[in-house]
TrEMBL record, chains A, B:
NAD(+) binds at residues 71-76, 105-109, 129-130, 142, 151. It comes from Crenobacter cavernae. This is 3-dehydroquinate synthase. Binds 1 divalent metal cation per subunit. Can use either Co(2+) or Zn(2+). Residues 181-324 form the 3-dehydroquinate synthase C-terminal domain.
Length: 364, 364
């Protein structure tokens, strides 16, 4: 096991990365202000991992309330969030009861937001069970639910007390979800570390074969980079927006197709292709660099073409992006491989060429 | 106009107290990161004050989105909160759009919570239109909505950028609401300043006659005391709970009768009588002190008897209090007039005597 420390102005917390961590209650106990927790998970993860986590805690004298939600991005709503509140209030959970998120990004985001709001703030711990959650959504304190008019529109910045990333939990992850997680891993290479990008090209086969060492390195390097950026800008007033590479296009794909049709990571994969293509259109990266990005995204098992939403729908969905300022779209684009920048006032013709170009699926 | 400064670790903001402040857009402009605001108000306040506030801002070049909600504590729910989100998203409000709460405690709490959650945090400003909101709920950053199982159970600590308390807005406040606000004013005297309590006894008639100078002094002294406590303990891990004097009983009254039957301030008034009676039962204050508290609460036009909920219902409702720790009720009680303390493990027999005693309304 290795442990990274995320030090923020008001708090610091460990990110534990290793194997078999789910059974080690000692990683959780120091963070509990009282020996009572609620484990929030979903109907897919519960049969696989709930009992192991619950037993370890109960053997250590912790009272456990399991809360099992339906599985899927379509359930990342207020109604589902309210199931958590109902369960907490019915069992008289207090403001010092710790919420443990056992699941992927949807569970982590909803549990974190529930913790942020329950009695104005209860402690919480992330136990991510998907690669995407391990490398990205469990770290950094972004929590949210979706609104019919936009993804993650209602939420809070609220940090966990600890993140526990157990590589062996990825054994049961469907291949499609593994690829979705790799999208966020590739993102870190593209936006900030060309050496890591090269490492990913060399190790993509090992990652997709779930080699624990390769996965642990990818998770570690991703979390290190994320931590570096979050420390500089916890509330996303500036540099943190770089972590949104591929996400402006990606969120539009998710909203345009209906949340849950494509996985978030798949939308981000195709979104990064569009971001790279737009960077190329603007003359910032050359064709070879664009192709290298597209190839790596494809090698991860991700789509390299976005669905054809139609120009108007693209612009409409992107206009709900949280990065919009004074009505202007802002994109995260590539200055070169390994360096991203936030760009406002992108040339409309270049954007239109990308949204009608070769990285958009043709209907025929 | 006088201005208090509330300085917290992460932020500081002014509390302006005076007359005719509603028309002075200069008090708001310095706090707007962009010239776009949403004014959240209710159907009662809108016809009285919305146009004045809106016009002043529009004349200063600010684009204004008015959001008018139904009026009343029963609407302090997720469904109403969602009306705010719908309006913000439909009009493409951004994360730098400022929300202005124009109304009483319900509007302030909901607008603040909406601002806390909208795109993970938009700026907001409080323009309280009731005495209760001016002396208490608009200051200190507590925001929330109710849940069927408990008041203010879902919320956030989220500070406004400014608070603007205009005494002349109290002209249109119904007498019953003025009394409800005085409950929180009396609270400050009881919990921390016996000289202020004496001042209140001497000036209760002037306050109820809406003498601007008397009101301004009461608002100022209340905000000063609240600010002092909030600065010590923004997130209520300790001393801030003192501000809950009368609220454990009061919340049980509101929940027991159904939210909105009694005004919050009325419930706090009767709740403070019960807290004083319990303090007397425990031998901390003598009969004369208890009578002095009861008399002042009555003089403010507030109920000095609580409804007869029945012992079981009292205990059930109080068990949902946010101050409960490890299953134990905690009360804020009076060591003497002008000094309160947080007490755990109150003698059950003493509590029962209070909840079946002379300060409970008899059914006959």
């Amino acid at each position: 096991m290795i442990t990274l420390d995320l030090c923020l102005p008001d708090t610091r917390y460990p990110i534990h990365i290793g194997r078999g961590l789910l059974d080690d209650a000692q990683l959780i106990l120091p963070h509990l202000p009282q020996r009572k927790v609620a484990i929030v998970t979903n109907a897919t993860v519960a049969p696989l991992y709930l009992e192991r986590l619950q037993r370890g805690l109960e053997e250590a004298g912790v009272s456990v309330l399991p809360i099992v939600l339906p599985d899927g991005e379509v359930y990342k709503t207020w109604d589902t969030l309210n199931l958590i509140f109902d369960a907490l209030l019915s069992s008289r959970a207090e403001r010092k009861t710790t919420l443990i998120a056992l699941g992927g990004g949807v569970i982590g985001d909803m549990t974190g937001f529930a913790a942020a709001c329950y009695q104005r703030g209860a402690p919480f711990i992330q136990v991510p069970t998907t690669l995407l959650a391990q490398v990205d959504s469990s770290v950094g304190g972004k929590t949210a639910i979706n609104h019919p008019k936009g993804k993650n529109m209602i939420g809070a910045f609220y940090q966990p007390r600890a993140v526990i990333a157990d590589m062996t939990l990825l054994d049961t992850l469907p291949q499609r979800e593994l690829s979705a997680g790799l999208a966020e891993v590739i993102k870190y290479g593209l936006l900030g570390d060309v050496d890591f990008l090269t490492w990913l090209e060399d190790n993509m086969a090992a990652l997709r074969a779930r080699d624990y060492d390769a996965l642990a390195y990818a998770v570690r390097r991703s979390c290190e980079m994320k931590a570096e950026i979050v420390v500089q800008d916890e509330k996303e007033t500036g540099v943190r927006a770089l972590l949104n590479l591929g996400h402006t296009f990606g969120h539009a794909i998710e909203a345009g197709l209906g949340f849950g049709t494509w996985l978030h990571g798949e939308a981000v994969g195709a979104g990064m292709v569009l971001a790279a293509a737009l960077s190329h259109e603007l003359g910032w990266i050359d064709e070879a660099a664009l192709q290298r990005a597209v190839r790596l995204i494809g090698a991860a098992g991700l789509p390299t073409q976005a669905p054809d939403l139609g120009l108007e729908a693209w612009l409409e969905h992107m206009s709900h992006d949280k990065k919009v300022e004074s009505g202007k779209l802002r994109f995260v684009l590539l200055k070169r491989l390994g360096e991203a920048a936030i760009v406002e006032g992108v040339d409309a013709a270049a954007l239109e060429r990308v949204l009608t170009g070769p990285y958009i699926q043709r209907a025929d």
